[in-house]
Design brief:
By secondary structure, this protein is of the alpha/beta class. It contains eight helices and eight strands; from the N terminus they run βαβαβαβαββαβαβαα. An eight-stranded parallel sheet has the order 1-8-7-6-5-4-3-2.
Length: about 220
């Protein structure tokens, strides 16, 4: 499968957000974390920022809803420019209803699991979504350390997708850098969210390329 890098704007300079986004325009996606202070213990951005960014960028917007009741917000985020919308299986909304709402808006649905949630929790939805996101840190804050014990979960999801003959993207988010990118790719992840390692580097564009190369060289070796 193709390796895709999705730089997370949570680690960008919000005073220069458009300029920072331009620096990573060579990435396949742009990861936009939406936090409500309820589902996760932090508050980030909402639809006004996404709408403004949409006017300034043609990148594929990978919007990650770390919020309670995502069904209520599918419409607003789809309308303001999201291309793919990820919601959490633990969020409280009925997953089938959220997936249907995202598809009705013409967007790609994706589902996510927190570290303590087993991979099996999303098995019933694998044939209904375009991507599964495995959190490799506890959601809510950027800059956390990678949780290596999530690697078996990634591997299990890739194996299940292959059993079902699904062309499924598996995304990882949390602590991804040049050391951990090969590990998650070996396990079967092909979409890598990277925040601090990209925007904290001296050359974000070059780091996107390096992460892609590191993941591409390692993809699937662990299976």
């Amino acid at each position: 499968m193709d390796i895709k890098i999705s730089p997370s704007i949570l680690s960008a300079d919000f005073a220069r957000l458009s300029a920072d986004v331009d620096k990573v325009s060579g990435a396949e996606m742009l990861h936009i974390d939406v936090m409500d202070g309820h589902f996760v213990p932090n508050i980030s951005i909402g639809t006004p920022v996404v709408k403004s960014l949409r006017k300034a960028s043609r990148m594929f917007f990978d919007v990650h809803l770390m919020i309670s009741d995502p069904l209520k917000y599918v419409g607003p985020f789809a309308d303001c420019g999201a291309d793919l919308i990820t919601f959490h299986v633990e969020s409280g909304s009925d997953p089938d209803a959220v997936i249907a709402a995202i598809r009705e808006k013409g967007k790609i649905p994706a589902i996510s699991v927190k570290p303590k949630t087993p991979a099996q929790a999303v098995y019933p939805y694998l044939d209904k979504v375009g991507m599964v996101l495995v959190m490799t840190v506890e959601p809510g804050f950027g800059g956390q350390s990678f949780m290596a014990d999530m690697l078996p979960k990634i591997k299990a999801l890739r194996q299940k997708a292959e059993e079902l003959s699904l062309d499924l993207d598996i995304q990882v988010d949390g602590g991804i850098d040049l050391n951990t990118a090969p590990l998650v790719a070996q396990a079967g992840a092909n979409v890598l969210v990277a925040g601090s390692s990209v925007f904290g580097s001296g050359d974000p564009a070059a780091m996107v390329e390096k992460l892609r190369e590191a993941a591409r060289a390692a993809y699937g070796r662990d299976r």
